[in-house]
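Q: For a teaching session next week I want to show students how multiple molecules come together into a single three-dimensional assembly. I've collected the sequence lines for a complex. Could you give me the predicted structure tokens for the whole thing so I can convert them for display?
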Amino acid sequence: MSASLSVRVASIETITPVIKQFTLASTGTPLPPFSPGSHIVVTLPIRERMCRNAYSLLGDPADNGLYHIAVRRQDASRGGSRYLHEEVKVGDRLTVSSPANLFLPSWEARHHLLIAGGIGMTPFMSYLHEFRRRGVSYELHCAFRDSATGDYRAWLEQQAGQRLYCYESERPDFTRLLAEKPLGTHVYVCGPDAMLQAVIAAARDLGWGSGRVHYEAFAGPQPGRPFVARLARSGGEIAVEGESSLLEALEAYGVEVPNLCRGGVCGQCRTVVVEGQVEHRDSFLDDSEKQRHRAIMPCVSRAQSDTLILDL
Amino acid sequence: MPYDPDSDDPAIKSRPVYHSPAHLPPANDYLCVIEPAAREILSTLLRQACYRRARIVMSSAGAGRETVPTVVDRDVWEELARRLDDALETVTVGCRLVVAGSEGFLWDVQTFALEKGFVDEEIVLYPVAGQGRRVFCVHCHTLAEPVYVSPVNCPNCQMALEVRDHFSRRLGAYIGVRIDAEVPSEIPPREVLS
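A: Of course. Below is the structure for the complete assembly, covering every listed component.
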């Protein structure tokens, strides 16, 4: 993981009953700059274990004094978002990673087609600042499950004007959105996995080369069945709780595994499996790799078997 | 991987390997850009199926002959680029670009197309065999084409150049480096390039 930073919670705004925006400030040296589409990983101490969640930076990349993240309260998740909503107060210190970017705009694109599902609009908020400065051509399609999007929608309307298309409780027709686009268009999608898969499939069916299709899942690790991870090389044995990801359990045990997105996309944390059946939840490994059960992405994936032996 | 001169693998990673598919990949629209010497290749491909839409833009390079011209002709290229620009105005995402011709031509068109907004996976390249290499003289920056043997004399600075397998996609050319730099006038016999 990139170097960790200590930050102070400068302010907390309630955007909607389920979304809070946290503004994070430096506690000493200035915060490192970031590019549009970047995220940080926030470390949260929950019941003696560490929960690490990735959040997009939604502020203006040119304003490098502060980091802004939006946290949607996920009651059915592992407790990270609940902790931020209920426990964290203004003035608290938090540990975050330096910004990393797996979702940078392709600046060679002639037209940017942005598609967001719900809170998936946050990386695009940082895009819009930079798009305005560069004067690039874009359109933004936002699908909301409910109309409770509060100030963010007003801000998007003000920024994007006629280029903003909103969909409430209906899914956009992705094939229609992607049809007959001028050469040089790139599509970006951030939202739930089903939306990502639908956009990727529509693009493929229309003959879009994969190089112009960009996506970022905002879903972090989901809870699952507890299991035991055995370390073949160092000989350790780790009990992975249902609420903890394998990566978090490894980190708590003191095993450092390179990682970046913590969402099963970037491939950094790929770990060799010596024995056991994997419950694959990532979108990095291909189908044949998944069937072989010789590799796991510990940031999101878990074990089907009671024990997983890892080459660590 | 370390360089192994006896390996069957292409030791020079920059040398392109063409996976030209025997059938055109499925699409609703094709833009075919060819040199005259590639007419047979293209007609074979187009005869395989009934396509919804296919347009052909042919370079005038070597028109009336079956070989490519002996020098890189800017006027021919600029005239082709104008016609490509016209064709691209109505191209939308999903079109497949089919390029067939000499190796240098393939990369000229590929570079042009990437600048205009195509991405790699939307482009298929069909090299025409026996058209020789385009060679870039690293000493005077002149392009020579077609080159069939190494060493070859640079048409501009006359230096005896060893034609390397190192390939520049930007230039569509193999790199030519003075072969007698260590011992002047010590020039090995010519070999025919593969």
